[in-house]
Amino acid sequence: MQPMTHWQRIEAALRGEPTDRAPVALWRHFPEDDLDPAKLAAHTLAWQRQWDFDLVKFMPSGTYGVEDWGAVTAYRGSANGAREVVKPAVARSDDWLELAALDVRQGSYGRQNQALAAVARELKGEVPLLQTVFSPLTTARKLATEGLFADLRRAPAALEQALGVITEVTIRFALDAIEAGAHGVFLATQLASYRLLSAEEYQRFGKAYDLQVLAALRGKTRLNLLHAHGHDIMFDLLADYPVEMLNWHDRTAGPALAEALSRFPGLLVGGLNENATLLNGSARAIEDEVREALAQTGARRLVLGPGCVVPIAVPPAAIAAVGAAARAAAPA
């Protein structure tokens, strides 16, 4: 088979057609440097130029969406490079009622699309580029940390008022990202888990607002990816979202790729255990995991990727092994 471009490979995989090799995409944080637009853009471009992935998931700090509302954050050396909220912006239930709209072209929000625009100019549209956008309820949790769960049950009207504000800000940020050169969004939800909420609670406070974000993007994007974070995820509740791709912790939380293939109609992103095989496994172990993932899906409708962000200590040899395994498994 003739070599494909990144777009050809992704789009053929999305249609369930054969590809010259399985598409591959891995992403990681660049802690501390991700606060500076120029440094974040430079890291993103260097990462892509080194590995030539088939999809670029833009990697802003995971707390960019709450800092303009007053949350205080810090990087404390987490293995995956993520920042943490050390002082929430919402401390009392009544604080939700004070949440005001933001100018997403200023502050932390503005810096993310400034950096993305610089990356888009350099990539020239040759590879799909997705801006990371957090679901409104995920942003709410970061604003209040664990207090969200009590407020969701004892002050639902106040929370819903705030979710309306957060949703509008999220939509304007996502639309700006498309204008800046993104081809879609990586919509991350961290609360669609039975360990955290009931299905009814997620329908009301999560999915209702997620769908507003996606509706606002309809007809304006080429590819959108939904990431479901955590264990015991509400897979079937998420599987009908209007997105082309779905990513979750298939290796550690399930469902397995083979099962998901019949439950989600689009492109699956996964197959790699980022915290075990990629971090500590041999090249042979990585190759075995790649081959097994391809076997589960018949090498169709799959982008080889991690269940979530790759730990910053994953060695370059492991990343190289993923690409080598994908090429070795390619049809003759």
Q: Please, could you describe this protein's structure?
A:
It is a single chain. The protein is an alpha/beta fold and 332 residues long. It has one domain: Alpha-Beta Barrel (TIM Barrel). The chain has helices at residues 6-14, 37-51, 64-67, 107-123, 136-144, 147-154, 156-180, 199-217, 235-238, 257-260, 277-280, 283-297, 316-328, and strands at 56-57, 72-74, 84-87, 129-134, 184-189, 225-228, 245-248, 267-272, 302-306. A seven-stranded parallel sheet has the order 1-4-5-6-7-8-9. Strands 2-3 form a two-stranded antiparallel sheet. Strand 6, helix 9 and strand 7 (245-248) form a beta-alpha-beta unit. Helix 5 packs across helix 7 (156-180). It is globular. The model has no long low-confidence stretch (mean pLDDT 98).
